[in-house]
Amino acid sequence: MRQFIVVGHKAATSGDFTLDDMPGSAGRIDILARCVTAAFVTSFDIRRDTQVRLVLLGEPDPPKIIRFEGSELKYLNPDERSAGALIRKALQVKLGTEQRRSTKGVYVERAGLAEALRHSDESALFYLHEHGKDVRDVDLHANNAAFILGDHLGLFEEEEEQLSQAQRIRVGPIKLHTDQCITLVHNELDRLCST
Ligand SMILES: C[S@@+](CC[C@H](N)C(=O)[O-])C[C@H]1O[C@@H](n2cnc3c(N)ncnc32)[C@H](O)[C@@H]1O
For an engineered disulfide with 142, which of 48, 68, 182, 192 has Cβ 3.0 to 4.6 Å away? Predict the structure, then answer.
């Protein structure tokens, strides 16, 4: 299982934003939408071995986690609006104490980064950071790894403190967008799995 956890510090936590303006009206949900696309969409297929947790921390109702399960996922197309629509639908679900399913393979719950990490405690943890160790020099535990990434703001110090178990890795020498890092991690794992 490949797991990705992405923190959206400003990402809206209500589903009343417009898909025409995800960067402005929804606290950079466009970043999270591209991460979902990068994590799951290949040419004419969906990665079934992948799970994504988006940690949304923006107003008006934080925190929320939206979990995407590749093994069950439906209705995700390659365009950004498609992922944005699934996120919006999840945010329109009224939350109680339990997680709720919004569409096939998409779940939403009241939780933050600590809970996201708790679900990954049996996986090898990797914190994606441009000053980490080169991804090609670490054992990626290709079959059971969780990768944590920041948004346009990176990760805050108090969030980094929760990642003491995680190894810092970089996918390349340049600071990239979060979704680009996900694509590169998948590529590294694909290369390992195909040898
Ligand atoms: C646009 S970057 C964050 C920019 C933010 N202003 C900062 O300086 O931290 C978004 C995320 O992508 C990941 N990232 C970017 N470049 C990377 C690299 N070369 N290797 C590994 N992760 C990277 C990190 O997780 C980062 O939090």
Answer: 192
